[in-house]
């Protein structure tokens, strides 16, 4: 089951995504006010099934999908794929040793990526920094966690990165990673335990970047290339930390454009992940 936030006829709502139409959830009873409230339920798919029963469908073409985030924090993990480790080491000789060691260390790299107002939804622009000359998208399978850090679903994330800023000094990571519209999420949340996701070690991830309609870069990977498990990443994130409204955790990228590539305004990024769909964002 896939859940979305959407805007239609002047109203924001929550719905089940069913191919080319939406089945809105009836939240008028007052028990639930948001998508995150549904995700807090013991069995979110059962709650969504009840709340969408008898609802009148809305053609997907008539609605605007919104980022599937309410008040959650967005966190990210780095250097979880071997290819990512190599790319980070290429950014700077001074950084090479630290990225090599974190790849092999029991403790992963984890950092706060975004708050809700910094997140772009489907079709909305992601941004590149004005003070950076080397910018790349990072397509990442994203874990959806409730307030108990229980894995309740999956979505697509784009962890925009200014590689020249991070390469200059690893301490500049927050500036390379965290700024307005530095992250995109969507188009939906595929709920856990509903049979729509492939086995965790077989989830395919693909990305295409187009410029003026021409393919400038494309790549693909598979979660079998990850050096860490989802459970391990979540356990480390939850150490001495609390998430009253839940969290999103981007699990790292295994698709790295060549060093000569950088995003430009007007580029269009498509990220497709098995079991979820495709997240599309233009670049501003």
Our count of domains comes out at 2
Query: What's the order of the H and E elements?
Result: EEEHHEEEHHEEEEEEHHEEEHEEE
What would the average pLDDT be, to the nearest integer?
A: 94
Structural shape? globular
CATH superfamily of the largest domain: Fumarylacetoacetase-like, C-terminal domain
Fold-level CATH name of the largest domain: Fumarylacetoacetate hydrolase, domain 2
Radius of gyration based on Cα positions: 18 Å
Give a short account of the largest sheet: 12 strands, mixed
Distance separating the two termini: 32 Å
What is the number of helices? 7
User: What CATH first level of the largest domain would be assigned?
Assistant: Alpha Beta
Structural class: alpha+beta
Number of strands: 18
Lay out the secondary structure:
Blueprint: E1 2-8, E2 11-18, E3 21-24, H1 35-39, H2 44-51, E4 58-59, E5 64-66, E6 73-78, H3 82-91, H4 93-104, E7 109-114, E8 119-120, E9 135-136, E10 139-145, E11 151-159, E12 161-162, H5 163-168, H6 173-177, E13 183-191, E14 204-211, E15 214-222, H7 230-238, E16 247-250, E17 268-273, E18 277-282
Parallel strand pairs: 6-16, 8-13
Antiparallel strand pairs: 1-2, 1-5, 1-13, 2-3, 3-4, 6-7, 9-12, 10-11, 10-16, 11-13, 14-15, 14-17, 17-18
Helix pairs in contact: 3-4
Report on the architecture of this protein.
This protein has two domains: 2-66, no CATH class; 73-282, Alpha-Beta Complex (Fumarylacetoacetate hydrolase, domain 2). It is of the alpha+beta class and 284 residues long. It has helices spanning 35-39, 44-51, 82-91, 93-104, 163-168, 173-177, 230-238; strands at residues 2-8, 11-18, 21-24, 58-59, 64-66, 73-78, 109-114, 119-120, 135-136, 139-145, 151-159, 161-162, 183-191, 204-211, 214-222, 247-250, 268-273, 277-282. The mean pLDDT is 94. The strands form three sheets. Strands 1, 2, 3, 4, 5, 6, 7, 8, 10, 11, 13 and 16 form a twelve-stranded mixed β-sheet that branches. Strands 15-14-17-18 form a four-stranded antiparallel β-sheet, with no helix packed on it. It has seven helices and 18 strands. The chain is globular, with a radius of gyration of 18 Å.
